[in-house]
Design a protein that fits this description.
CATH architecture of the largest domain: 2-Layer Sandwich
CATH superfamily of the largest domain: Pseudouridine synthase I, catalytic domain, N-terminal subdomain
Number of helices: 6
Shape: globular
Radius of gyration: 19 Å
Number of strands: 15
Largest sheet: 9 strands, mixed
Number of domains: 3
Order of helices and strands: HHEEEEEEEHEHEEEEHEEEH
CATH topology of the largest domain: Alpha-Beta Plaits
Oligomer: single chain
Helix content: 10-25%
Length: 232
């Protein structure tokens, strides 16, 4: 299998993020650093390391987590901000978040070591819906709501059509992409400031636990996620 797929199956990260590790020279195959994304490895014969740790393909784990405000989704931060992993002491497996939520954003995060599924869930090709509740600095005008549904032009290109509805200064928006800070940038393009952002659903999953809590996904939920990402 390709090296990035091996890293994903070993629970290091999604395939896309695994490519960054390879290009950064953090990965060794049989004792030699490789930066070739096309590298093929045999999980039964080749020894793959990242940062000196030998990797193995492991059983996959899946969790739902309700991120509170004031935490980053990375494992560490140069500014010593609190990480969500400080709240996940009960999880013994090595897992990573599928996508990101900003320091001041809240809501549903999927945590897993299934890199292949993570890749599919955030890649726009598979159009997995993510819904956010937002509070704006002013009432969303109808013309702007319709523009969100057509797509807006950001610095990294035209967004795919969203679904949006609003009431007063609150709005509910559903997107099928996973660009960095996408929802906030979409509203900023239309001259709105997002005061609060809370992800309430990801594919078939909906928030059903309190802030800072996590739970394992049920077998049927895992199957629903894989089906949504066209993996079944």
């Amino acid at each position: 299998m390709r090296l990035n797929s091996f890293l994903a199956k070993a629970g290091v990260a999604s395939r896309r993020k695994a490519e960054d590790y390879i290009l950064a020279g953090k990965v060794k195959v049989n004792g030699k650093i490789t930066k070739e994304l096309s590298t093929i490895v045999n999980s039964q014969k080749d020894v793959v390391e990242i940062d000196g740790k030998i990797l193995q393909v492991t059983a996959h784990s899946y969790y739902l987590f309700n991120k509170p405000k004031g935490y980053i989704t990375a494992a560490s931060d140069q500014l010593d901000k609190k990480s969500i992993f400080h709240l996940l002491g009960g999880i013994k497996e090595r897992v990573f978040p599928v996508g990101r939520l900003d320091f001041d954003s809240t809501g549903l995060l999927i945590l897993t070591n299934d890199g292949e599924l993570a890749y599919r869930l955030i890649h726009p090709k598979y159009k997995v819906a993510k819904t956010y509740e937002v509070v704006l600095d002013k009432v969303l005008e109808e013309k702007d709501r319709k523009q969100l549904e057509k797509g807006v032009v950001l610095e990294d290109g035209l967004t795919m059509p969203a679904k949006a509805r609003s009431r007063d200064k609150s709005a509910l928006i559903t997107i099928t992409e996973g660009r960095k800070r996408q929802v906030k940038r979409m509203f900023a393009f239309l001259d709105y400031q997002v005061k609060e952002l809370n992800r309430v659903s990801f594919g078939p999953l909906k928030l059903d636990i309190g802030k800072g809590k996590h739970r394992k996904l049920k077998k049927v939920e895992i199957e629903q996620l894989k089906r949504a990402a066209n993996q079944l």
